[in-house]
Amino acid sequence: MPHPRRERFAVVDPATGDAFDEAPDQQPDELDAVVGRAREAWAGWRADPEARTAALLASADAVEAAGGELAPLLTREQGKPLAESYSEIARTAARLRHFVAMAPETRTITDGRPVHSEIRWRSLGPVAAIVPWNFPLQLASAKFAPALAAGNTVVLKPSPFTPLATRLLGSVLSAALPEGVLTVVTGREPLGALLASHPGIRHVTFTGSVPTGRAVAAGSAPGLARVTLELGGNDAAVLLDDVEVEAVADRLFWAAFRNCGQVCMAVKRVYAPARLHARVVEALAERAKTVVVGSGLDPGTELGPVNNAAQLARVERCTARALEEGARAVAGGHRLDRPGYFYAPTILTDVPPDSPVVMEEQFGPVLPVLPYGDLDEAVEAANATRYGLGGSVWGTDLDRAEEVAGRLECGTAWINHHAELSLDQPFAGIKESGVGVAGGPWGLYGNLRPFVVHRPREGGR
């Protein structure tokens, strides 16, 4: 029977600001059936590792084959350049293959007792994967690939700003997976909150804002479900006094502005030595003024729009306040006069160090560049935030740069680059940047629980 209210909701193209399609607005009372099917599918899915491997490898092939359909749809609803959408799809397929090849290791405990003790690994059950709008497919795969490879089933909820490509991805995957193993649900709140708190869910993996992450953790607490939270960052790039400004300017710019700055581990503030500060600002501003901004479907576009009206308003407020406090926009500093959610790539100087654009995560195409006189002060300023996801140090003396990187309070530190991750490495933050670990074997074991079996050794009792 159709639901009498809010059966569908509009999906907006951020390059035009107009709705171009609709997605099902699934209601909370549908979750019991969805989670129930995931629970039923779990028994067969966890029981046959060989069949699971074959299905996931077929899924990866299917994702690649559907790239021509998925990429334009992802760009249409998210805004990013088409080439970046294709990269998301490639990453999705790669993650499936990566985790399929990563089997948990059974271990034997040798401690002098006359028993044979073995540590085995078991899956958890239905997993709720709740994904934001900045990398809908890539972040979805970062959650469902290890969960499925570990023998769990998954209920995947995308952001209501970007539901369409994820729904299509779910359809593509369903052709290779048994029924109920991966289900995509779409809808507006409180659907995500109720999924996270559903008593049939055994692991909640969420990427998004700190306030929503807290709500997810609180909602999952009564059922004691495991929680993995990636809650964003405010990554600092510290430039040393031996940095070659022109040599790193392109890398530094794109580390901040890729995906229109809508990257949790993007560079969101730069600390430059006072004697180099003007050169750094000039080099970054030159790139901000010449980068091609437009619809992600246009072949020449390098930078797309901000994804949604609410985020654009946040970027505008954050920048306007900085300007009111005395900051100066050397490039940008305003919304572009065209349809859609376009904001001019912005480089700010003379920014008060306690301005929200410095202390908070602006999550848009705005970058403050702050001078420092003493390196210790720069490191202290880099660490003076409630976030701790990533950070980077830039200079020619790599030993010195590595020493400074070791002083950053974050989960990942890069030297002379930023926001590059391998599928083999852990990804986690400290402080309010999250709880738990994704990536590599840590991501796989985060979806498993240990099961210990003791038996007497031969001749024992």
UniProtKB/TrEMBL annotation:
Residues 1-29 are annotated as: Disordered. The keyword Ribosomal protein does not apply. The active site is at E230. InterPro entries: Ald_DH/histidinol_DH, Ald_DH_C, Ald_DH_CS_CYS, Ald_DH_CS_GLU, Ald_DH_N, Aldehyde_DH_dom, LUC3-like. CDD domains: ALDH_AldA-AAD23400. Residues 7-444 form the Aldehyde dehydrogenase domain. Keywords: Oxidoreductase. Residues 19-29 have a biased composition (Acidic residues). Belongs to the aldehyde dehydrogenase family. This is Aldehyde dehydrogenase family protein.
